[in-house]
Write a structure and sequence with these properties.
Shape: globular
Distance between the termini: 64 Å
Strand content: 25-35%
Largest sheet: 5 strands, mixed
Radius of gyration: 21 Å
Number of helices: 2
């Protein structure tokens, strides 16, 4: 039943296109600090003016805004240009506590809100929970078991590398990390890597760095100076309601692989952060 709006009142209805609850894969749960969300690209014409949920980019184009709430949730509402299909969203943290990511997010049509599905279930299908991995300035305990490393290629940083840690021997996965635009990464091992009943110190772990087969080239050449995140890999998310190994960081971006020189066994010290020589991707 539709409620009757009292005389003298105006009704304004906002509908959620997609919500975001970014997660911290090391601590578990929501992020402890705010991050920034931005949509890539301008809204389609003829929508040419700024509205309450839009911003004007440096080139004068109108771009959708993802609103942040005090509960560390973000919301992209239906608005001109955001109807259905997909939207590209960047998530980044200027203080470098978390490593940036970029997603292509499917947008359900507005009509799906009225297909007889219970409203809470419909809204749940519109919420994404991307994992943001520790960056160089991440608030990490000095008693954590981890590795600060750097990946390089051709004498420069391997931008946006992916890192996996697996026990040696056995191959059990005990940690993941994402590299930033400087090639730096912070790999924190899971507690299960060395359970209290089987403490092993030092702990041998095979660390593998993944990167794109071909280094991206900015086009035009000024793109890298204008946009620090120009080559951030675009990760398409699955249809809402389907299993999502992309948001969690389990799936590598398209074209990523490990080179023979980018994997080695590292001896971790329990309760310590260590460093290691550069991982060379060749």
């Amino acid at each position: 039943m539709n409620a009757v709006v009292p005389e003298g009142y105006a009704e304004r209805l906002h509908r959620l296109a997609v919500g975001f609850e970014p997660l911290d894969p090391v601590r578990g749960g929501r992020l402890a600090h705010p991050v920034r969300f931005e949509c890539d690209g301008p809204l389609p014409r003829p929508f040419t003016r700024s509205g309450p949920y839009c911003r004007v980019a440096r080139d004068g184009q109108v771009v959708p805004v993802v609103d942040r709430h005090d509960s560390c949730l973000w919301a992209l509402l239906y608005q001109p240009g955001i109807v259905e299909g997909a939207v590209d969203v960047r998530i980044y943290d200027p203080p470098r506590r978390y490593v940036a990511r970029r997603f292509r997010v499917p947008i359900l049509p507005v009509a799906s809100l009225a297909l007889g599905e219970p409203a809470p279930l419909t809204q749940a299908r519109r919420v994404r929970r991307p994992a943001l991995f520790p960056g160089a300035a991440y608030d990490i305990s000095s008693r954590a078991t981890g590795l600060r490393g750097r990946a390089v290629r051709g004498g420069g940083p391997l931008r946006w590398a992916r890192v996996e840690a697996r026990l040696e021997p056995g191959g059990a996965l005990v940690g993941r990390a994402h590299g930033d635009d400087r090639g730096e990464f912070l790999l924190v091992l899971a507690n299960a890597a060395s359970p209290p009943s089987e403490l092993v110190d030092p702990l041998d772990v095979r660390v593998t760095v993944f990167g794109p087969a071909v280094a991206p080239v900015p086009v035009p050449a000024t793109l890298a100076a204008d946009d620090p995140l120009w080559d951030l890999p675009l990760e398409p998310l699955p249809t809402p309601g389907d299993p999502d190994p992309v948001s969690s960081g389990e799936t590598l971006p398209a074209g990523y692989f490990a080179s023979p020189t980018s994997t080695r066994i590292v001896s971790f010290r329990l309760g310590r952060l260590i460093s290691a020589p550069d991982f060379v991707f060749a």
